[in-house]
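User: Hey, my collaborator sent me this sequence without any context and asked if I could get a structure. I don't really work with proteins. Can you help?
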Amino acid sequence: MKYTIVKIFIGLLFLSQGLYAHPSWSIVVDKHRNIYFADLAHNGNGTIWKLTKDGKLTALLKDTHSHKVMLDKEGNLLAEYVGKGDREGFLIRIYPDGRTETLIRTEDGSKFSVNCDVALSGNVYFNYQKYIWKRDPAGKIVKHSNHRLEAAQSLYVDEEENIYVPDKGVDNGILLKIDKSGKAEIMARDLISRLDRPRDFHNDVLLGLTKGCDGYMYVAELAGQRIIKITENGQTQTFYRSEGDWFPTGVDFFAGDAYILEYKNKNGNNGPRITRVDESGNKSILFDYDAYSENRPDTRKERNNSIEAIWLYILGGLGSILLIVAIRKLIYNNKLKFNT
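Assistant: No problem. I've predicted the 3D structure and written it out in structure-token form, which is a compact way to encode the shape of the chain:
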């Protein structure tokens, strides 16, 4: 009986860690103004969505843990995701007719990591053991740069195959540029907002990034609830700031307009929504999942399941505390027996 209780507590402890996962940080817009984004908050492990310019939402893949979506040179959707059990990394292509093609599937992080981006040439760049590696279309893998990263969670590759990496572990957050030859330089420093509290190293991070139509880099910075624009000589501007409890995790540009992916708390359990900022600075909310799901029976059921999950997380936290207390008591009693 005691052994069964301990197993339940351990299971609940691992479930409770889901509260601390980062949300997805990727959004891309194709030439038809279709918007693709990933979301970990709905349909099991998450969903890869397509939102048309007319507002039609389609789930392309469900129960899929993905942080990053991309477009290849033909405009097909690419997505990375983690397989069940968090052991396998996948890179897939999704065609307009819904067909999927698995490009990479491996349990070996030295061959592919889901912290990646794909160049127009087909080269896949990924972060493995704090270095950037390149995998060409034939599967040949080489270390791309000798620059060591500290705490990088995302990366972006531009049309010239320059790689941009936000690293929260250096100088209060930097944006690093690594060119096609592997040479690295720091573009900007001190990117993470300093708030009137100790820094939360897990949640005060730099996530999604892209190059704007103006040629400047834009980075989502969660502590300040903003999108940062990096200008000349490492100068920065706040391009966009989320309101209230919302915070941005990703951004993309098309025809001068910015499309911003937002969530409502730093664990990404509410939302997402998509806000467009046009060239004149006018803001409009294109999509809000909470409003979309308000009168849908399937999503009402999903919300009920989410409430049950929250209680499970709470019980998991309590269970972990009780487990620690029980182990400490067991150790203490064993010491008493040994001493007597």
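In plain terms: The chain has one domain: 2-303. You can pass these tokens on to your collaborator as they are.
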